[in-house]
Amino acid sequence: MEYIKNIREKCPLIHFITNYVTVNDVANAALAIGGSPIMTDEILDAPDMQNICNALVINTGTLNKNTVESMIASGKRANELGHVVVLDPCGAGATPYRNEVIRKLMDEVKFDCIKGNISEIKALANVSSKTNGVDASDADQATRENLKDVFKFAKELSKATGAVIAITGVIDVIADSKNAYTTDNGCREMRAITGTGCMTAGVIAASLVANPSDKLKAVTAGVVALGLAGELAKEYAKGTGTLHIGLIDELSNMDDIKLEKGAKIERFEI
Prior knowledge:
By secondary structure, the chain is α/β, with parallel strands linked by helices. It has helices at residues 3-10, 23-33, 46-49, 65-81, 96-108, 118-124, 147-161, 196-210, 215-234, 240-252, 256-262; strands spanning 13-17, 36-39, 55-59, 84-88, 113-117, 164-168, 172-175, 179-183, 265-269. It is 48% helix and 16% strand. It has a 9-stranded mixed sheet with strand order 2-1-3-4-5-6-7-8-9, sandwiched between helices. α4 (65-81) links the parallel β3 (55-59) and β4.
């Protein structure tokens, strides 16, 4: 399937309510893959933005009461219009307030995809985790030995929410209530770049808008595209600074031939 071509032809307009640490990176990644980003979190403005957009991405990285109100109102409006909605529960499990907000979002907004690192997804699935702020704990990482356990709580969370669950890490796991894919794209050095997870959520949203026939495959394509871009950039990067720039370059040069050739994917029935 022509996942990247479809994104570039559709050029989905994506409304981001995201954290101010990574907002520029998120915008550049969305542009590089073929989307068009717009950012607003003002309650008088944000819900109406959905009238012209194709998708909404909500990121809980830097919370305040005003943005939470905008997240919920915008999410409800996106649901009314049948738009793609992606949740990035950044820092889930870190504080009681953050957990309360994310639960409220999940109760009041229907999400097409929930994307997070494994510690964040474990927190949402009520599985014991060792969250490390907004980063996953090494003790939580998916491995070949614990994949069945990861599949189990991802499947249960998907069944409870109706969302595709995307767990990013050393091994990425993308699952719905019946099937799962694992991907091995990316490089460890990407963990030292702020915002790679936030960027992934935007690429996923673009892929979901442009490839609506199979949500699980569309999300998987988005995860692979970001990971592969980092992997390709690592080949010539001199450090995390040039890796950061190279990742955006590789996203802008990504096409379906590169995606298919470079994807390291396995499919499982769960």
